[in-house]
């Protein structure tokens, strides 16, 4: 629906109200005379609620001219129904109309028409709405048929409203884009860093769910799909697929490790693992130059670091410092060597498909 405040001015001629006067060009009265003369019974067809302003008195004016011409003016606020289509929301343009019609008199008794055609409508040049641009404002007329009473003249006030999109870009589209791009960061993280990649994936999924919930709470409740729904659900799908992508990478990595362990065999009930495999189990980085034998229940990183800090060793010659130096130069090499082929393709496919989707989406709806 929409709400409009307007001055509704009626013009007609009633010779019974004519008078002779050499001094007065017209006579003006207030609403008390309305009940004693004939006035058109115009009503708003799809009105939900309307009222005549009455502060400080009823905003009604009646002006009578010597020849019997009458001007009847009211200040009214109307809330009326508009048949809106939100399939392109928030990139939509709505065409609404306010319809006026006589309630009792059909076209044989009363004819309604715009006195000056389209120029009969005038608006404030500086009028502005918080959510819409007013693209068009025009007047038209037609006929309405009722089976029991006949044909009636009907007047239309037509206007086209185009919705402001900048608010929705800041509140919906831009955060969704950032969440999708943030989910791609996991493709550049080592596939064995399970906590980092899982936490990032779950965080982006939950954030997208929050964005979708907040947007749907402020949108019109309709039973069909809107344009913003398409964008948010596709963005959510990209974020969800990034989590599924890591699930596939982790599963295939586990299968590869099992095959390697079967080939190496077991030695004294203990596995011989390289540095990156050890990091996957205890969460600590180990130098790739040393083969580490890990018991089935490895000690946590904090205990290792506490034990090392309590040892009285000089800072210049400790093996730990050597490993730290080698870590700085070999992190990039280790990540690239342990990169899965699925991650490599995902770095290219996910951004490319998302860019193509945005291109078609904005080209279709704008």
UniProtKB/TrEMBL annotation:
Q: What InterPro entries does the record point to?
A: GABAA/Glycine_rcpt, Neur_chan_lig-bd, Neur_chan_lig-bd_sf, Neur_channel, Neuro-gated_channel_TM_sf, Neuro_actylchol_rec, Neurotrans-gated_channel_TM, Neurotransmitter_ion_chnl_CS
Where is each Neurotransmitter-gated ion-channel ligand-binding domain found? Answer: 1-164
State the membrane topology. Answer: Multi-pass membrane protein
Q: What main location does UniProt list? A: membrane
> Which Gene Ontology terms of cellular component type are present?
chloride channel complex; postsynaptic membrane
| Sequence intervals crossing the membrane | 165-188, 200-219, 231-253, 348-365
Domain of life per record = Eukaryota
- Localization per record: Postsynaptic cell membrane
Which reactions does this protein catalyse?
chloride(in) = chloride(out)
Please name the GO terms that the record assigns under molecular function. Answer: chloride channel activity; extracellular ligand-gated monoatomic ion channel activity; transmembrane signaling receptor activity
Give the record's keywords alphabetically. Cell membrane, Chloride, Chloride channel, Disulfide bond, Glycoprotein, Ion channel, Ion transport, Membrane, Postsynaptic cell membrane, Signal, Synapse, Transmembrane, Transmembrane helix, Transport
Q: Which residues form the Neurotransmitter-gated ion-channel transmembrane domain?
A: 173-266
To which protein family does this belong? Belongs to the ligand-gated ion channel (TC 1.A.9) family.
Q: What is this protein called?
A: GABA(C) receptor
